[in-house]
Specification:
Layout: H1 3-24, H2 29-40, H3 43-61, H4 63-66, H5 70-77, H6 106-123, H7 125-133, E1 135-138, E2 145-148, E3 154-157, E4 162-167, E5 172-184, E6 193-196, E7 201-204, E8 208-214, E9 217-224, E10 227-230, E11 236-238, E12 241-243, E13 246-249, E14 253-258, E15 268-269, H8 272-275, E16 282-289, H9 290-298, E17 305-307, E18 316-322, H10 326-336, E19 340-343, E20 349-352
Parallel strand pairs: 5-6, 17-20
Antiparallel strand pairs: 1-4, 2-3, 3-5, 4-5, 5-8, 6-7, 7-10, 8-9, 9-14, 10-13, 11-12, 14-15, 16-18, 19-20
Helix pairs in contact: 1-3, 3-6, 5-6
Length: 354
């Protein structure tokens, strides 16, 4: 074993011990002070402690882990004649003297950390790969990003979005829980590109489509190619029993899926230019309530627009706006509806009733 790998093993053992001690919840003041000193010794100590705690938390979310008999698996792995493929970490190794520690039973140490890591790495490589190799992208107010994925696909990420990406030689999966993104998928028939939202799975092999997840619904707009939209949370009853609703979209079509809507998925004609105008920081509305228009605009601006008179919230708006100019937006809306606009000290623009 090299000096580097030996150092890593020692550090992992120490981080595991500290994690278990803190979980027990009965450390003395001296032991807590020793833990703080251990963290201060190197940024690597902090990173390793966070890695150990994150690993246990991620493993405990896996359904397989809840029914795991670690002792039985370890016994099986260490059966007579088998290769010694399960090795306990050297718990007594130290980088430097530390405060006296409580003895930790072998079973208590194995279950939460070392055995869990060994067994999980062997039996569930895919879930662990998703935990450690997923890339997360987040955008805030007014922030948009353009991302190139390893397979050659391109993703335009809209404001206030949160998505996780796992794209490599075997897998092309995106998890979009909130926000909006425009996907231009590289052609690869052997590896479908899937976007998962709270209510849908959108599958494509090489195409361009927009997915929006806001206010409890998913809207899919297809620009090029074909995508299969499936709603695993729903079921359709028929003569042959139940089935998961799924539709194939053609270019220029859109579909909206909500958790509480009817099970069937109904495609409709889409205004593709309006649906994707956000990539040019323009917002297009057609007979939309003023409240909806303002809420949408506020996603793009730090200086918020506020409707002071509730009676004006349902005024219909049909227009196109520059998402980067809150003053022009507020004054344009107010002028069209014969309302007033007042700038407040906090930078917000208030639309007041007549």
């Amino acid at each position: 074993m090299t000096d580097s790998s030996n150092y890593t093993s020692i550090l992992a053992a120490e981080a595991t011990e500290w994690h278990l001690d803190l979980q027990a919840g009965d450390l003395s003041d001296a032991q807590r002070a020793a833990f703080v000193q251990w963290l201060y010794r190197s940024p690597a100590h902090v990173q390793e402690f966070l890695r150990v705690t994150a690993l246990q938390a991620d493993l405990e979310r896996l359904p397989e882990f809840k029914n795991l008999d670690v002792e039985a698996l370890l016994s099986q792995a260490a059966r007579p004649g088998a290769a010694p493929n399960v090795v306990e970490f050297p718990m007594n190794l130290r980088l430097a003297p530390a405060a006296p520690r409580r003895a930790i039973p072998r079973r208590a140490w194995l279950l939460p950390a070392a055995a869990a890591a060994v067994v999980a790495a062997v039996y569930w490589p895919s879930p662990l790969r998703q935990v450690w190799e997923t890339t997360r992208y987040e955008t805030g107010a007014g922030e948009q990003r353009s991302v190139s994925l390893p397979d050659g696909s391109q993703v335009q990420i809209n404001v206030h979005s949160d998505l996780e990406v796992l794209v490599d030689a075997q897998t092309r999966d995106v998890d979009l829980q909130n926000g909006e993104a425009l996907f231009q998928v590289a052609h690869d028939p052997g590896h479908p590109f899937r976007v998962h939202t709270p209510d849908t799975v959108i599958e494509a092999k090489g195409t361009q489509f927009d997915v929006r997840v806001r206010d409890g619904r998913t809207v899919v707009v297809l620009l090029e190619g074909h995508v299969q939209v499936t709603s695993p949370t729903k079921q359709v009853r028929g003569a042959a029993g139940t089935a998961t609703p799924s539709i194939l979209l053609d270019p220029g079509e859109a579909v909206t899926v909500t958790a509480d809507a009817q099970a069937s998925l109904q495609p409709r004609a889409a205004d593709v230019d309006a649906a994707t105008a956000w990539i040019h920081r323009r917002l297009v509305f057609d007979d939309a309530p003023l409240a909806q228009v303002v809420d949408e605009f506020n996603l793009y601006s730090v200086d918020q627009v506020v409707i002071d008179n509730p009676a004006t919230r349902d005024i219909k708006v049909s227009a196109s706006f520059d998402a980067t100019n809150p003053e022009l937006f507020a004054r344009s809306v107010a002028a069209a509806a014969s309302l007033q606009v007042v700038r407040h000290a906090d930078g917000s623009w208030h639309i007041e009733g007549p």
